[in-house]
Amino acid sequence: MQIRSIKAYRVLQPFVSGTYAMSKGREAAAFDSVIVAMTSDSGVTGWGEMAPLGSFYSAAFAAGVRAGVVEITPHLIGEDPRALTRIGRLMDTVFKGHPYIKPALDMACCDLVARAAEVPMVTMLGGRTSETAELYEVVTHGTPEAMIANAAKSIAGGCKRLQIKVGGDVPGDVERVSAVAASVPKGTVLFCDANAGWTVYQARQFVDATRAFDYTLEQPCATIDDCFSIRRTLDKPMVLDESVTSLQEMLEIHQKGAADGLTLKISRLGGVSRTRQLRDLAVDLGFMVTVEDTGGAEIDTAAMAHLSLSTPPENRLHAIAFHTWVTVRTAANAPPVTASHMGIPDGPGLGIDVRPDLLGMPFLDLSA
Q1: Does position 313 have pLDDT exceeding 90, yes or no?
Q2: Beta bridge partners of 63
Q3: Which of 223, 247, 270, 299 has the most C-beta neighbours closer than 10 Å?
Q4: Mean pLDDT of 236-246
Q5: β-pair type (238-240, 27-28)
Q6: What does each C-alpha distance from 136 to 27, 44, 87, 162, 215 come to in angstroms?
Q7: Helix H segments across 125-271?
Q8: Count of CB atoms within 10 A of residue 88's CB?
Q9: What does the alpha-carbon distance between residue 252 and residue 224 come to, in Å, rounded to a whole number?
Q10: Do the domain assignments include residue 7?
């Protein structure tokens, strides 16, 4: 089997709920997605997607993804997509660093190989461990009143897990979290995610002021050492997200005991293949794991669902359904979502049926 052609599309995906807001004025109105179609010499096509959340969230930006994909794709034509490790090393050889430009290509390889083998991708990723993964929804940064309304909408829709955005001024964040926590039903699972927005001093202030609430603290500070400083005296679980960009960092987190759980993002780690590697090791090390990404529609959400549902339930925290965030469609079907859970669609590979007519004209069309 050989890769015979690669197409790449740019698809702007506006948010259903308008602007997505984090602390310190960080906000975005849409995902700026790159979608890749990779076709073999036997006519089977695999799909991949990568969409950064603005240019402020990760060390990634949409124009960089498009430029990087154009640089890498000529080196992949004629390669065997089944040789996933070789493909990954080849991409690293011809384009050093910048892992965020490679996930859509790796995802397309994985989808292509699974479709050719007529098995769902979850089988290639270790096997399905449950029918659905529990979902969480985000309460974006805003006034206490706006955040209460946001949380109430999620709860009314059946959601039982909320991620509350914090990481700004500490007194304001304490007020916002207190208001949301008091407004939701007893038993609602709460995560307070600072997105690395605090200093150690600020994180200690927040933790001390919110000891009465039951929540998991997520990425309070920017560095592993600073987060570990908070973790040593914290009486609640801690999850790290932005700190996990490589195997080395994950091992450092484990060695220091800096977190109880990890959020693994496909685009941050360089693709589905490497996310699976880190996910498996994280499980062996005893971490709780969330597998997700920085954004996207049906294609990327399907990949997240396959990775989530091949994670042992006892080590799985939750998942997120990004395709429900956006106003555009890219596939005729999608990962099935209920009020509080997400599954994977039936069929080989990602299981979705991408609609090229919904993607517009490709900015890259390369054939052997």
Answers
A1: yes
A2: none
A3: 299
A4: 97
A5: unpaired
A6: 20, 34, 33, 5, 13
A7: 144-156, 170-183, 200-209, 224-231, 247-256, 266-269
A8: 20
A9: 8
A10: yes
Please check whether residue 349 lies inside any domain of the structure.
no
Count of domains observed in the chain: 2
Whether residue 134 is found in the same domain as residue 264: yes
For the record, the structure tokens of 350 come out as: 């990602």
309 and 166, same structural domain? Answer: yes
Q: Which CATH number belongs to the domain containing residue 318 in this structure?
A: 3.20.20.120
Write out the two tokens for 257: 């005991």
Between 18 and 312, whose confidence is greater? 312
Domain match, 104 and 148 both: no
Which of the residue ranges 19-28, 99-108, 345-354 would you say has the lowest mean pLDDT?
19-28
Query: What positions carry a catalytic annotation?
Result: 165, 265
- Paired residues of 23 in beta bridges: none
Residues 6+ positions from 302 with CB-CB distance below 8 Å = 121, 334, 335, 344, 345, 350, 351, 352
Looking at the structure, do residues 205 and 58 belong to the same domain, yes or no?
no
Residues 68 and 135 in one domain: no
User: Does 49 have pLDDT greater than 80?
Assistant: yes
pLDDT in tens, 84-114: 999 999 999 999 999 999 999 999 999 999 9
- Report the distance separating Cα 21 and Cα 28, nearest Å: 7
Helix then strand then coil, % of the chain, to nearest 5: 40, 20, 40
296 Rama class: left (phi>0) / alpha (psi -120 to 50) / beta: left
Residue 278 lies in domain: 124-342
Residue 65 is encoded by which pair of tokens? 């993804």
The dihedral through the CA atoms of 207, 27, 334, 340 has a sign that is: positive
Least confident of 47-56, 167-176, 184-193: 47-56
Judge whether 141 lies within some domain.
yes
Tell me, yes or no, whether 302 and 319 share the same domain: yes
Q: Would you say residue 23 has pLDDT above 80? A: no
